[in-house]
Amino acid sequence: MNDNMERVREVFTQKSTRVDTNKGEEFYNSLFEKSKARLQSLREQEPLKDIDMMDIIDSEGINRRDFMKWVSATTATLMLPPMFAPLVAEATELMNRVPVVWIELQDCAGNSEALLRSSAPTVDDLLFDVLSLEFHETLQACAGHDADKQLEEAVHLYKGKYLLFVEGAIPMANNGQYGTIGASGETFYEHLMRMSKDAAAVVAVGTCATFGGVPAASPNPTGAVGVMDLVKGKAIVNIPACPANPANMVGVILHYVLTGQVPELDSLLRPKFAFGYRIHDNCERRAHFDAGEFVEEWGDEGAKNNWCLYKVGCKGPMTFNNCSIVRYNDGVNWPVGVGRGCIGCSEPDFWDKYAYERPMATARIKAPTGGVEKTVDQFGLGLLTATAVGIGVHAIASVVAGKKADENKEI
Amino acid sequence: MAKNIEIKRMTGTMRIVHWVTFFSMIAAVITGLYIGHPYYQTFIADPAVDKYVMAWNRWAHFIVAIIFDVTAVLVGYLYFFSRFEKPYKKLIPNKQNIVEFFEVFLNLITLNRRKKFDSSHSDSFNIVFFTIFHLLLVFMLFSGLQLYVHGLASGHSSIGTWWPTMLHLVTDWTLYVFGGNIGVRIAHHYTMYFILVWVMIHIYYQVWRTIFWKEGDIAIVFGGSKFVKEEEK
Fold first, then answer.
1. Please, are residues B143 and B188 in contact by the beta-carbon 8 Å criterion?
2. Where is the NADH:ubiquinone oxidoreductase-like 20kDa subunit domain (chain A) (predicted)?
């Protein structure tokens, strides 16, 4: 009951989810000055890693022009005007001043995988060589007690300054014993709470860390929940999707390096620059949706003509993400582009409510009342039939009863 | 011999509202089913033809929804301030209304064996039935507008930003009640079936009344009047 009241309060106090892509000259001028000062102060700090970004770019055979192309694209992704491009470039160089600790909980490491396949100029380099990634179990060389030690040192050294990236859900059932970490057997929950305590901000990466994701799917045996359900009193940024798009991860870090703040968030704590629009709004198949041209089954004539995938279960109209613009794997393609529907992987409860390759109208999803596993249409038709039968019975009874009444009258 | 006399039951405005609702509903159901599950393909194969089938279906759905909403507001007004009959008066749960409600109900289930109420005016059973329908419509209004504004994430619309802002303010609660967009969608769809059930019962009852009461009730919605026998008056 208290939870419900809390929710109602949230509804009436939450900020609009409006995406303001042009906040006016005054705003950007002030942000520009602020960012310049921020970058200046970062430059004065000792780099955590003494590596020059431009050297790396040269050594990777990426020319200045390609780098600036990436800078423009990233500036646009962050919904900043072009005048910020030089600052974004500078922020990239100064990424080695911001420590990042990445912890991994109950998940498949898909977000780390996605990050490794990040786009030009090989952001792996940015991250491994420039960005001060102080701890990342899956990627680092050390293991066991050495790894524990490295983590402790990083957290101690950069107290209050590091960005904590969390990948994976947190199992809460059975006192959290479904997931423990290290020799001490610390549960994922304890681990998360300890790590987030001194973080400057917490970035939940992927749908598991944000909304519980696949581990939290019904019946959720491990009692998995997302970071924002547990961590309170901290700046939290959610970057859902399965996996989260590396462009959005890099975007959040860059925004933090640039401004010292987390980007503007929506009511689900997702950065608006990435989750401000439905993928349906910018889908290359949108014209076919409006035209009523739908793929009826895989491999049919419509599929060959790249028609809309709504009827084969695409959840694009309900899903907020920028995949239709940024795409995946170096911007090569994305689910709808390769001819299969969106499964709404960046939405809460996505596995139970979105991730089925059937249209909404034929999906067997649980009714809001719970338990009833019939589809709405089956239930509806049943209800209409029952009503028709009821009416029929009443009508026949009325006719029969009417005749009898007439007979009685005649007598 | 009993003489039938004509009595007025619906004003011109009420009849217009009734038929606007009727046609809006037909259009909303047909287009709504298409939007939920496009059941026919574009008829013209040529891509270079103006054939925006889904767009037209959505257009029609939204237009009739707005007409629906406006008539709902009108009905809401007439509910309290009509100079003809104020329906809310029959909803007050006083003894007279409760007795009348059950008498009409008993008349229906005893197959017209027990007609102990005044059928010359709108009775409380009728008004309760009428009210349930409009509550269903109001629910369709809120859930439908939420489904609509969900897509206006930019917060802009052709008539300004106030419109999506207002829609968010009055419809966002449905997201919490039904657990997100999919839940709202299911609730919106379910309610269509409840409305259809309502319509079936409504048509049956009006026809049944006409046949068994022999007072020409079906004429109310066309000419505005029905007949009652003089001695009952």
1. yes
2. 108-255
